[in-house]
Amino acid sequence: MKTKLFLLIIIFCTIITNGQNIYPEGNAGSPINEADSTGPWTTGGILTTNATDPQSGTLALRFESVSTDAADRRISYTFNATIGETYNISIWAKGGEIMNAPAFAVWQDLTGFTNPTNITSSTWAEYTFTVTADSTSPIIRIYSNGTGVANIGSSVYIDSITITSSATDTEAPTAIIDLTSTNTDETSTDLSWSASTDNVAVTDYEVFQDAVSIGNTGGTTTFNIDNLTPGTSYDYTVFAEDAAGNVSLVSNTETVTTLADTEAPSTIVDLIASNTDETSTDLSWSASTDNVGVTGYEIFQDTGIIGTTSTTTFDVSGLSPNTSYDFTVFALDGSGNSSLVSNIVNITTLADTEAPSTITDLLSSNITDTSTDLSWTASTDNIAVTNYEVFQDGGSIGTTGGAITFTVTGLSEITSYDFTVVAIDAANNTSLISNTETITTADVTAPSAITDLSASGTTETETNLTWSASTDNDSILNYEVFQNGQSIGTTIGAVTTFNVTSLTPGVSYDFTVYAIDPSNNTSTISNTETVVTLSDNTLPSTVSDLSASNTTGTTTELTWTLATDNIGVSDYRLYITDLDNGANNTDFLIGSTTSPYTVTGLNVGTPYNLTIAAVDVAGNTALESNIANITTTLDNSAPDIPTNLLAANTTDTTTDLIWTASNASDTNEYRVYQNGGLIGTTSSSITMLSVSGLTASSTYIFNVTAVDLSLNESGFSNSAIVTTSETGSGGIPYTDLNANLDTVDWTTNELFANGNVGIGINPQAGYSLAVAGNIIAEEVRVALQGNWPDYVFEKNYNLPSLLEVENYINKHGHLENIPSAYDTKTNGISVGEMNAKLLRKVEELTLYIIQQEKKINELSEENNNLKSLSERLSEIEQTLKELKK
Fold this sequence. Notes:
Blueprint: H1 2-17, E1 42-43, E2 46-50, E3 60-64, E4 74-78, E5 86-95, E6 103-104, E7 110-111, E8 117-118, E9 125-133, E10 139-143, E11 155-165, E12 180-182, E13 189-192, E14 202-209, E15 212-216, E16 222-225, E17 233-242, E18 254-257, E19 272-274, E20 281-284, E21 294-301, E22 304-309, E23 313-316, E24 324-333, E25 345-348, E26 363-365, E27 372-375, E28 385-392, E29 395-399, E30 405-408, E31 416-425, E32 437-440, E33 454-456, E34 463-466, E35 478-483, E36 486-490, E37 497-500, E38 508-516, E39 529-532, E40 547-549, E41 556-559, E42 569-578, E43 585-589, E44 597-599, E45 607-616, E46 628-631, E47 643-648, E48 655-660, E49 667-674, E50 677-683, E51 688-691, E52 699-708, E53 720-723, E54 757-759, E55 769-771, H2 802-812, H3 821-827, H4 831-884
């Protein structure tokens, strides 16, 4: 009781604190009571609560107009007022998703309101009004013009609404002291009391049950309560309220105890069963009645409960065919009272005479020498399949208990068996026999080992192996022969001989043999037969028809009839004698079948004697052939003249020369001339030369010639005229003061700038040349100071895997070590450095291609092995067919 009193005091204090706000606290517009309700506002549009962006509390009201009709584009609120009394009204509002001139407008019976007051912001703003009531039911309105299309009209949000009276009514109504209850039964009671009095007027009464508000009466002095629990005690109190929000003290407490429910529901007398089949039936009955209320029914099957229901039907399943059952039902109320037992309904389920479906997909798997696994798809039945019986060669070998797999054991090796299955239901109906699954058990017995392997007829390069036939429980498919532990082939069928070829003379070999049966069982290793081939002391035949043709200044072409040998020619040795220099003789191996053969690297205008000798696999070298005598031709034609000689980077003592290579294919070197005198040479692959030791403020003429292998020299290239700069100046600076003088020769002089140069743009810090626009040139040469990326081909280069490349691309959006689009746009790129980076990627790609080629070759070899194996299996299959015949 002390706890209830404490709660009443808290409620009372709360009501007194907020008593001056006469705005009803039952919707989201008020921060005092955040109920998810839109009342008491009215509208023809769309009014909802919104929790996305409340100004205060957790909810706001959202109003959306849906047409141009006045009722559909406004919301209204009527509050109880005293005529002539002043009210302070505060409303927080903001424009919604579509703002079409929302405003406070057309208020009724309120003097002092400015019409309209526009809502101009899409953020929360407070709007305040001080108005005087001209009637007891003034109206507040908010307009939001619609578009005439549903759900896309103008919208507005409101929240935190307060309406307070400026009157000084602070007197609370008198407390109620005669709260009484009447007509109390099991679930309800009626409350009543004498009217409270007030200096102005009592406007409402609030009723509490066990200190929790359960409703307002709207001014009446009675309140009906239902949905109570029978045999339960409740405490009731009431508060009176006036128009100013003043609340009376708590009333007297009226304790009510509802009547206990001891009355049982009525007995069911019309329980019936219908739709009875082999495994189910449907029960139904008329509803039982009760003084309070029936809450459910319990269903019994042969005195055992099988379920409950709140309806008057129950479907019974899981019954057995051709079986008798008794069913009864009890009605229950909320107090646990149970009716008497209903009438008994007896049913007998239908008999099951339908056989299960026939199994058509019996399969075997995991076949060994003594067992196999059987499996099949479940059979179907009008009731249910309860078992499967398995048959082997027509005899039952067991049941599965409903499983659709069965492991057969105790079989014999290399034996054929027929299996079948039938399905069985609970009524012992049996399906037709399934398809027949025929198997032959595996062969796991290896052939006997060979113990008498021997060799005969051994020569320098071959030998003949023989042995006695192996025995097996099935048959011998073939024999596999091994040479020094490596397989060298199999016999065709079960023959017991094997000819070994391609041996090396004078070498020892170890041979073994395995027997293989059709199930690929392999015998243990045979005895080892060691064979030593005969030594080869026979020389290859001597070449006698060596001839030379198509001789040039540096090459000649040799042809001859290939030599013969008792074993085989493996190579030829070429002997070259320079007749102008007898000490300059060479000999080297050139391959086994090299006729014709082109000799290169000869000196022009030189006589030579050429001979060859065949070499066999044992290293025996034949006598030298006949001599082919030749004299290389003289080259009197000069190579093409180099072109486009240019000078660059000229200082007071140095300059760099660059030229375009000669078109002659036999160019051997370039010679550089300064004022007609030779100052240096370069190889045929280098077309530039740095010249030093020049004199300041001096003019020089440079030319280049090409020289071929016959030392023929071309004429002079175009002249590059260079004038060195003054001593220590590093160059002759051109400025806007002297650039256009007649004394300045732009044709022969160079432009030199100590600082940075800008063309069409100011010079840029860190860049020697900045150009605003395009650049065109016949050639651009970039001399890199960094490493050229040939390091990619070094042995220790860490080539990333393609998976690592993919992961980097997915993470960064560009190749590793290559600038991103953002970096290029921000910082630009260095042409030379970028070419090096791109070449690095090309070289990495080359390595990937080489790896892929190796993998393709490996797969090709594996494919060939599989093809060979397939051919062997085909041969085995053909042999088996012949054996069966």
